[in-house]
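Anyone? Bumping this.
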Amino acid sequence: MSYVVETWELTKVFKKGHVKAVDAVNLRIPKGAIYGLLGHNGAGKTTLLHLLMGMLLPTAGGGTVVGYDMVKESSLVRKSVGFMPENYGLYDYMKVDEFLEYLADLNGIPRSAAKTTIRMLLEEFNLWDHHSKKCGQLSRGMRQKLLVISMLLKEPELLIMDEPTLGLDPLAAREFKELIVRLSAKEGKTIIFSTHLLQEIGGLCSHVGIMYMGKLLIQGEVENIKKRFLKKQGYMITVEAHPLDEAYKLLGDQLQEQVALNRGRILIYAHSDVREAIFDLLASHGIKVRDLHLEIPSLEQIFHKYYRGEC
Amino acid sequence: MSSRLFTIYKWSLFESIKSRRFLIVMVAYGLSIVMGMLAQGLGSFKTTFAQASLLLHAVYSSGMWVTFATVFGALILAVDAISGEREKRTLPLVLSQPITRAEFIMGKSLAIITALCLATITAHVILILAAISIFQLTPPPDILSASLYCAIPGLLFATTVSSLSILFSTLSRKTISALMATLVFVIAIGPILNVCAPLIASAIVGPPPERPVQPGYVVITNTSVNVSIPPIQPPESELVKEWKQWYSRYSAVRDAISAISPFYHAEQCFHIVAFGASSSIEVSSFTEGNSSTEVSIDFATIIDKTAPHLLALIVYTVVPFLLATVSFMKQEEAIA
Ligand SMILES: Nc1ncnc2c1ncn2[C@@H]1O[C@H](COP(=O)(O)OP(=O)(O)OP(=O)(O)O)[C@@H](O)[C@H]1O
Ligand SMILES: [Mg+2]
């Protein structure tokens, strides 16, 4: 399998305060993934992303980003990877188009080509009307869009974003989601973003990595992570049946699992996915099954469980 | 490497010159030069002496004002070079572009230094032209080369102070702390050292011997240029000899201490330029009476005498510049 980003025991210790901000991280990010890097404040997400961009030197370990060595070829990494820093820091005294021309210039994009691309992108993101405004006059949402444009200028195959939806209103956040989906599906770009707003963009991810105190606790495809989580934590199955009492009694007697009654529903905590067995059992006793489903944990629940050390 | 450094340089310079601060610095320079001219009583010279010399003398004999404006300009243009980027959180953005930290800080520093130099030169040119037209002076043929050469110490002082400000800006998290640090440093190596150097020197050399009472005796302590009037030499007593010995030791130590400071070197240069100019005025007025057309400035002497000081100023520019570069390259800013 070819990975767009791969690191080996990547470690960063800040001399100041002896903080182990990133601790032996082995990232594996496949091509085309939408990879969500989850973690609380201070987990080391920003540091990890800066290491990938070669903006910081690792204390130990290393890795490759889009095929280039993170340390030795960091200039090439920065040339071919779009990066959006946290906090939307822009040169407030520059005009919007000037700002983009500056970044294009830094990337060695010829002036005339840059001008047409900039205009096209500004129009696409509905910012053309603001092109001669100072960056400082833009709203948060516009600043974020401008940074997205600045990444796209490089025509990168990989986009790395640090907390890209922080402080955006729900509408802007949704627009952003749609953009990510479009970039990923239509243009086949690989996208990495860090976040702690799981409800907002958690659903987007095809892959996640959960960071805790510098360590990457778990990573992989979201579906796999959920499966693994269920195996470890057990399966919760909800049943609605008629008549209820009869069904409850039957399941309690026949199943070797924990069964409880709650607000007109039967909850079963099982060691495996026993939905079929339940259905067969109830059906064979002439009990009508109205609903029978496995509770799939949300990323958020998984995240919190990992955090509390319950996993 | 060089083309990306140049990109940073070009954009930073462009931004500096466009900014309002640049104008403020020019005004400060202008004011300082006007103050210098007023302090010299320019009106009273009028057309008696050689105009080129007169102007240069007027500008540089009040080196203090130029020094003032330069420090002010460096603070305004350079002190937020890096700390400002940190405060506005723009560093991660620019450092995620295909440039290196070294290219970034060097390009930016060079741009700021250039901007300050441009402000200096522009202000000089404007004021010299203004003075020429206001006082209806006929500019002598070597006015341009003279002004240019005499602007060099001013320019080098500007590069020194901006390089220092950039260093403090690189080391500080906040612009305000960079500003305070630069100010404290500048005051320490400027006025404070100025006051302390004689004290320290006399502490090292010991108290002076009894001062000889010699009416009419002239001690020439700062002979920047050969003055053509021969000093009157009375016969030297033992006391005088002793005192002269003490004084030469004392002044050597004092100057050595003062030489720590770039201010000292700048002031020496200003002094040499100003008196170099005025001595040629006097020479000419003695030899040719009222005629002032044939006067030219003795550049050879000025160049000779200013050279070591200019060299010191270059060192003072390069060292902080390199220190700032190295320290920025070693910094780890993930959260800044
Ligand atoms: N330049 C630095 N010097 C010293 N310590 C640092 C530096 N940058 C980050 N750290 C420390 O490293 C750890 C990880 O910080 P980092 O900014 O990577 O976390 P994060 O996951 O991005 O947090 P947040 O969600 O708040 O953005 C923190 O403990 C932080 O204090
Ligand atoms: Mg962060």
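Late reply, but here is one note on the structure posted above: The first helix of chain B runs from residue 2 to 18.
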